[in-house]
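Lab manual, section 2.4: Encoding a predicted structure.

Procedure: take the sequence of the chain (215 residues), apply the prediction step described in section 2.3, and record the output as C-alpha cells. A sample record is shown.
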Amino acid sequence: YPMTNLWPIARDKTGSGWLVDEVAAYGQAHKQMILNLGFPEERVFLVQPPFAKLIKKNEPKYDFIIMSWFANCLTIYGDHLSPVSTMRSALKVAVDCGAETIGIKIKSRAEKEYLLPLLNEISISVDILEGRFFEHVTKAKAIIGGVSTAVAESTIAGIPYFIYEPPNNGYSNELINSSSVIQLEKIARTPQELKDLIIAGESSWTAPLVDLITS
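Recorded output:
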C-alpha cells in the first residue's frame, strides 16, 4: 500500500500522456493520492487491499514488533546507513517504554549483520522475525516502523503503528504531507517524539478506516 506519492505513475516521453491505461486503487484514500498526481479519475478503479483477507485474529506475543528500515535514497536526504542508528534508538525507546518482549521484522537476512550487535546493547531478548508481515502483525500489541505498507496492514488488524522516520531516512516533510493517510504531526522524527507517540497511544494512520477497506 503506497503511503506517499514517492513513485509517480509514469508519463510518456511527451509529458502529456500516461504509460498505463488504468490504475487500481486500494480504497478512497489511495485513489485520492493517484488523482493528486493528475491521473484521470475515470481511469481509476477501486479494489480491496489484497492483504485485508490475510489478517487473522490477534494473538499478542510481543509488546512491540519493530520493522527494520530501508533508507529512501531516491531523495537527497537519504543516508543508506541510517537504518542502523534508527533501529538502535527505536530499541532503546521500546525498552524505556516498558517493553518486555520485542520482535524485529527484517526484510532481508543480510540485515542480521548489523542487527545482532545492536541486541547486545539492550537488557531484554529479542526475536528476529522473517517472512511476510501479515504472518506476524497479529502477534504484536503495537508496531514501530517506517513509512510502509505495514502501516495499512496494522490498521486493518486494529494494531497501533507508530511511524518513526528520522530525517536522514530520506522522507522529507513535503513528501509525508503528500499522503492522504498519514500526517506529519503523527510521525516521530526523534526518539523523544517516538516516546511521546507511544505514551499517547495514537497510531500514525490518520485516515478513516473506511477509506482503506471499502469502496
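Check your result against the sample. The helical segments are 28-36, 82-96, 112-119, 149-157, 173-176, 191-200, 210-213.
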